[in-house]
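Ticket #4471: structure export looks truncated?
Reporter: QA, pipeline team
Priority: medium

Steps to reproduce: submit the single chain below to the structure queue and open the exported record.
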Amino acid sequence: MAESLETIRREVVACTRCPRLVRYRELVARQKKREFQRDEYWGKPVPGFGDPTARLVAVGLAPAAHGSNRTGRVFTGDRSAAFLVRAFFEAGFANQPTSLRRNDGLRYRDLYLTAAVRCAPPDNRPTPEERWTCAPFLERELRNLPETRAILALGGFAWDALREILPRVYGGERPSQEFSHGACVPLGPGRPMLWGSYHPSPQNTNTRKLTLPMLVELLGRIRASYETRGHRGARHP
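Actual output as written to the record:
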């Protein structure tokens, strides 16, 4: 590889390219949420985390203000994380069912977890410009995950970000299919498949738009798809 995931991680953490996001993430880290007043907030961009030989890469939207922006690890310390990591555990991708803080012993097997935007955005809504500013980090991560066989977009925002990035990483045409839960788009021979899932936000899980059995079943289907295909890894132009 031309660079390492550790190099990308360091650059992500040091990034200050989006003034609005810098102001917001640091403001949240100073003001804190009442229940976390004793915590030292991370307050910086959040890098990806997981198995560097993973065949499945899952991509979320952005850090939660009092989740990853507090803990410093992607999908850690909030309700979305609790739901998602439980699903990963039940599907065999995680060694434990909880993701509460950095250094809590969580390890992913055959899974790398990251996000389209690396700073907590106001109202959980990055702007298109912020998404594009952050896109090179995701592109570089994908280039340095050579065993990737499936990419799971957690929500429509991540799906749209990936549709623009994937042709630059793997070649081929921009996927035209719109987002839906369970959507599956082949990227071409020797390339990963793009999958979609509803985001594990409380808005979706509390209303049962997304249930734990739904996500566990989808994760099992994704794994079965690439194990059946016998795919030998991603191809980069």
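Status: closed, not a bug. The export was complete when the record was re-opened. Leaving a note from the reviewer for reference: The two ends are 13 Å apart (CA to CA).
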